[in-house]
Amino acid sequence: MRKLLLGIAILLIPFSLKAVNETGTSPGVDPCKSANPVPGCPRIVIPPRLLNPVRPDYPTHGRRKQGLVRIGTTITSDGELKDIQALSGDDELKQMALAAVRQWHYRPSSVNEAPVAVHHEIAISFTKKDGVLLGADDAGADLAMEPPEDWYQLLRTQALQRVGGNVKPPRTLSVRDPEYSRLAKRNHYEGICVLSLIVSENGQPKDIWVFRALGEGLDENAIAAVRRWTFQPATRNGQPVPVMINVEVQFRLY
User: Burial level of 93, CB count in 10 A (0-12/13-18/19+)?
Assistant: First the structure.
């Protein structure tokens, strides 16, 4: 049996990334398209995305081990990894995981299109039946992990609203649970993915993308389910308006 927990939050406030070494705005550059946009500018954060998922090898001797290895690192504004450190896991599996991760390269995180360095945690699962799983870093090539290009301009012109002040949040009217993927269920894989989307003035979800990935097919299943939700739309001064929100979906097996 599975349990699905839901939550709605304003985009980029509860789920912002931990940026490091951000720089200021250069002269002649749009002050909104910066890692440190000036007050009043919309702020869109796009998370990093692994471009070359090199999978760790298993140790070549003895019985195949199982276990989870966690690695902490900083992804630079060029997408390189630095300060790579194994945080937990079996010693032998940690060495195999580190050897693979040192070959990884990311599309860097960005704030309003400006690349930024961020802290990042990697979770690698060594399994007996399904090989090595890369969790949130194993996003499918077709998985949407950034908003449509027009979001920024819509926010800047206030054609798209954010919740707060006189803009009241939408409320869910009908909710469909996402399915657990076979791979995730077989390996008792649990966690939270965060989807970002627009709720239109008619209460329909649109332009759904993954702000915080979970991996192992669960993000795709969450998107498929949320597309079928309906909302009571957000309002501004009592009138329906389109808004940008986050939806948090927690997958848990009992």
Answer: buried
pLDDT tens profile 148-185: 988 888 988 889 999 988 999 999 999 988 999 999 99
Q: Beta strand pairing status for 234-236 and 106-107?
A: unpaired
206-219 mean pLDDT: 95
Residue (of 185, 207, 210, 187) closest to 198 by Cα position: 207
| DSSP per-residue codes, 13-53 | STT---EES---PPTTS-TTSSSSPPTTS---EE--EESS-
Residue 152 CB neighbours (<10 A) = 19
Q: Which amino acid, one-letter code, is at 146? A: E
Closest C-alpha to 148, from 159, 139, 138, 140: 159
Q: Is 213 helix (H, G, I), strand (E, B) or coil?
A: coil
- The residues facing 82 across adjacent strands are 74
Q: What is the pLDDT of residues 103-135, one digit of tens each?
A: 999 999 999 889 999 999 999 999 988 999 999
Looking up tokens 């649109």 gives: 206
pLDDT at 128: 86
For residue 99, give the H/E element and its range: helix 91-101
Interatomic CA distance for residues 41 and 32, integer angstroms: 5
Residue ranges with strand state E in the chain: 2-10, 19-20, 45-46, 49-50, 67-75, 81-88, 106-107, 109-111, 114-126, 132-133, 161-162, 167-168, 171-174, 191-199, 205-212, 230-232, 234-236, 239-241, 243-253
Entry pTM: 0.85
